[in-house]
Write a structure and sequence with these properties.
single chain; about 35% strand
Length: about 140
């Protein structure tokens, strides 16, 4: 199993939207590195849902329910892909970007080093650490 983080502006599509919809196509990714990460996602992988913008915090855990398929919005067929995710669990308390930046155990999290990337891997130890800290 692999672990991931996806980012979204809550005003565009937030955790509450995913909870309401139950499952969603994660599409619109137009960055080659992020696309490659989508291609690596497997059914059952766990995904942190991160609100970017003003709040900047991990708010929930989703699960990959369908592996990479052509992005329905890729009208020019440039090879962009999507996955499907569903909500698994809301965090009892969000884990903020500030907390991530000051925590030595999370210093190599891609969220810090590649802040503009909207899909990124998370190491299992980091994933477990954040889950425990928000329980």
């Amino acid at each position: 199993m692999n672990y991931w983080l996806v980012k979204s502006e809550p005003s565009e599509y937030g955790w509450e939207d995913l909870l309401k919809n139950g499952e969603e196509i994660w599409d619109g990714i137009r960055n080659f590195q992020a696309r490659n990460y989508l291609l690596e996602m497997k059914m059952g992988d766990l995904v942190f849902f991160y609100h970017s913008g003003k709040t900047r915090e991990i708010v929930g855990i989703a699960e990959v329910t369908e592996e990479a398929f052509p992005d329905p919005g890729d009208k020019e067929q440039k090879g962009w892909v999507s996955v499907k995710i569903k909500p698994k669990k809301s965090l009892k308390k969000p884990f903020t970007l500030e907390q991530i930046k000051i925590d030595g155990q999370l210093s190599n999290l891609p969220l810090i080093k590649q802040s503009r990337l909207s899909v990124m891997p998370v190491e299992k130890q980091q994933f477990d650490y954040i889950v425990k800290a928000t329980s």
